[in-house]
Amino acid sequence: MKNLLLLTIFLIASAISVSAADNIDSLKQKLQLTTNDSLKGPVYSAIAAEYMKYDTITDKRQKLRYQNEALNYTMLALHMYSKYDDTTGLRTSFYNLATIYHSQKKFVQAKWFILQSNNLSRLQNDVPNIISSLIKLSAIKMDIKDYSLAMRDLNEALRLSTKNKMPLLESDVQRYYSFLYNRMKDYKKGDIALKRSIFIKDSIKKDEALKILAVQDSIKNRQDSINKKKVYASNKKSYKLNDAKKIASL
Questions:
Q1: pLDDT, tens digit, 9 for 90 and up, residues 174-214
Q2: Of 100, 117, 107, 110, which is closest to residue 55 (Cα–Cα)?
Q3: Predicted confidence band of residue 219 (pLDDT cuts 50, 70, 90)
Q4: E-strand stretches of 24-80
Q5: The domain that contains 112 carries what CATH number?
Q6: Model's pTM, two decimal places?
Q7: Is residue 180 included in any domain, yes or no?
Q8: Predicted confidence (pLDDT) per residue in 93-119, tens digit
Q9: Contacts 24+ apart (CB under 8 A), 37-41
């Protein structure tokens, strides 16, 4: 049974790897055909995004190669975005570079890049990405055992997510509170934070389900109304025909 499970995991991983390789080849061909420099940034980012699926790779050498390729193509994208003053592209590239360096445990680089992403998000007043970058920053600080500053980042992220009514991000913040409290060996608070995160996500799912039901009911009611109008029109037409026949027979 165990061998079968391992074989299944291996086959799934192999299929994902083949699919990713096909996507990368296709995007590299697209890059060769792109002659306008201003359009190359998004293609570089798309290639980097494929290489950023390195968490699906089990082979250590292949995983490291994917990480380095992700860094390379993200840097290329970054230069293009900088050249054309694309602040959204810059912000995303900074965030992705922080993610890769964090995976490689290069915390100084990861911290520097996530701070750049956070600064650009603040300049754009992009609240969701301010929160996301604060969460990432807290995760980096947890890994270097800077727990008090990680707590400060999560506190700000929580204030922003609740103030702006962003429950999905609030759920993520609570999940990272759980990680932080567990690192600090305060398992009771960690458990409470995790339960809050799960509760918020469950509430979101229930709200979405209710919205879908409301839409379905609205469609059904509209269709019922249309059908009733059709029946009424048909009956009215039938009555008129019968009246005409009666008059004609007189």
A1: 999 999 999 999 999 999 999 999 999 999 999 888 888 88
A2: 100
A3: confident
A4: none
A5: 1.25.40.10
A6: 0.77
A7: yes
A8: 999 999 999 999 999 999 999 999 999
A9: 37/80, 37/83, 37/84, 38/80, 38/84, 40/76, 40/77, 40/80, 41/77, 41/80, 41/81, 41/84, 41/86, 41/89
117 with 173, same domain? no
Annotate 152-168 with DSSP letters as a single string.
HHHHHHHHHHHHTT-HH
Cα separation, 154 vs 179, in Å, equals 11
Domain around 61: 37-125
In this predicted structure, the answer to whether residue 33 has a pLDDT above a threshold of 70 is yes
Tokens of 50: 């494929």
Tell me, yes or no, whether 121 and 150 share the same domain: no
**Res. 83 pLDDT band, cuts 50 70 90:** very high
The rounded distance, in Å, linking the Cα atoms of 190 and 174 is: 9
Q: How many domains does the chain divide into? A: 2
State the pLDDT at residue 207.
86
DSSP 39: G
Please name which of 52, 54, 47, 48 lies closest in space to residue 28, comparing C-alpha atoms.
Answer: 47
d(CA 81, CA 93): 9
